[in-house]
Amino acid sequence: GALKAEQILRRVLQEREDNSSTKKRKKRREDIYPSFVMYTMTIDGWARSIGSHDSDEEGSKEESDTAAAKRAEQILKGMQEAYESGDETVKPNVITFNAVINAWAKCRHEESPQQALRVLTWMNDLRKSNRNDAQPNESSYNTILGAYSRSGSADAPEKIAKILSYMDRMSTEGMQIDLKPSTISYNSYLSALVNGAARGTISGDVSAQKAEKLLNKMIKRYENGDDVEPDGWTFTFVIQAWAKSGTKNAASKAEKVLRLMEAYHRRNVLVWSDKSNVTLYINQFNTKPISIAYNSVIDAYAKSNTSGSARCAEDILRRMESVQMSGENNDVKPDLVSYNSCIHAYAKSRERGVATKAERLLRHMEDVYKDGDTSVRPDVRTYNGVLDCWAKSGEKEAAYQAEKILNEIYENYDAGVSDVLPTTVTFNTVMYAHVRSGHPQSGQRAEDILNQMDELYRDGMEEVKPDVISFTNVINAWSKSRNEMAGQRALAILNRMEELHDAGYSKNIRPNSFTINAVINALSKSREVGKARMAFDTLQRAKQKKISGVNTNIKIYNSVLNACAYSDKRRGDDPNDVLNIASKLMEEIQEQKMASDITYSTYLRVLSIFMSPDEKRQRMLEQTFRQCCDDGLLSQGVLDQLRWSVDSNLYKSLMKEGSSSGDRRGEIAVNWSRNVKYERQYK
Questions:
Q1: What's the pLDDT tens digit per position in 365-392?
Q2: Domain map of the chain by residue range?
Q3: How far is CA 46 from CA 3, 53, 55, 104, in A?
């Protein structure tokens, strides 16, 4: 393409040079001249090649695109030089310059908008110096606006706004009437706001407010006689700006704009009563709502933590289905994104029955796909979303339903009905369903699934390679299974992780703080003799291996304390060893100042059970209680444990401490519990 066109151009240029140096040849070959078409075809070829490279490496693509844009510009410069040398047949025009501007605009690097703007400035400079009469037009500026919009840079909206202001001024003051910003121009500004918010370079809330302000301004100006009207994409960009804003009511604000879009289109249709008015006929289609607008609102509800968001997402989906059934707008039709987003909304919902609803959507998608609509063919994200709904549902049969869907994926693939294969996430989600079930067999079932993943991976299925979440889920499943072997199995899984990691199986299975906490929890809940020592040793081993976050994770320390608190002298646990472990833990916790109210309530239990009932125990209990109050960590749990641990006289005496002026009990309690989460504060 581009290279071949340039080779032809170069050959013609070379022959012309040779022709001019030999009189004999000049006499025979006077017709050898590179034409305007040759130049423009070569420039256009390089511009079109940008973005079409096959390399998988982003850096390589960027280099290839930049090289192509440079070649296009060099040829344009040669064209301009030839024109200035007297060959008026190759005079570059605005279309030629726009091709090079477009080449730079399409490049994949942050400097591409500035490079495109530089070419436009060069065109203007040539015109001012009477070296060329080509003048930038709306298309020239819109191409640059689009480049800034795609860049996602923090200053993109500001730069676009300046260019829009310049275009508007040039048009309004009559210096270049055809430069008036169009709907496409304004949409570039809106798109820049959306892209900036999505990439985190611009405040989402500010972007959304600016976007909606521009939309309202465009509507008002159009109603007052301006010929630039918002189209379907204008509304959609504003919807996306709210959807990606991250604000509390983002979804409801996005839906509000969607409803405005629907009402605006309906009004246009009503106004369009005379088909002889071609402009109105066209505009009533330009303002039609599009599927992306609806999908953006569904996605906003899916990401919302507001109560009832799942129902709202489902309502939008049903509206899309209703529009499709009515035939009034062929541009609105639920697709894979619509259904997947709604299923994701179900997964985040805490409402009962959402898993059944999600699976019902899956079955509907399968039926529609079988009827020939490939746009709703379920993919692995669809199945993973439904599995997530079951895993989080807490329903009795959730784990069974999750495994049933997993098996179904395999059966459909083997039968050629579907090309969907499970991924690591798929298996992890099914294992999480077993974690949530708490069934006595959940630990073994989760471990069986892990073994299945490992076997498939070793057989060459890279997509299901177990990761740290896989192993941690198995440990958690054992922990919650109430199985007497849970502690030993958890330790065995941890050992397996470390061995595989050290053997180079995968970097992604190195135990993390969640893994360590899960193992210690499993030990804590077990009936193992010496579980306090095993839990403490697990913590020490994790610290020696420098597992991130373990040293400062109070949940892990509290779990080891819990293993101490629920050790059993009657089964053979050594009281002195338990007390020594608990004391060491408390020293570390105090040194790092990371105690919680749970730390104190658990330690009080250890002292009351494993110390001899003498004055020393009383002093230790008093000292621990006072330290708890000084730290502002008196919770209802600490208070209940204290009441259970000491006699009534000491309890009353301790409750009076903390005030020398006779403050009321409630006022003292506020100070004592100042650092406790509200729901656990002393009542």
A1: 999 999 999 999 999 999 999 999 999 9
A2: 1-136, 595-683
A3: 8, 12, 17, 11
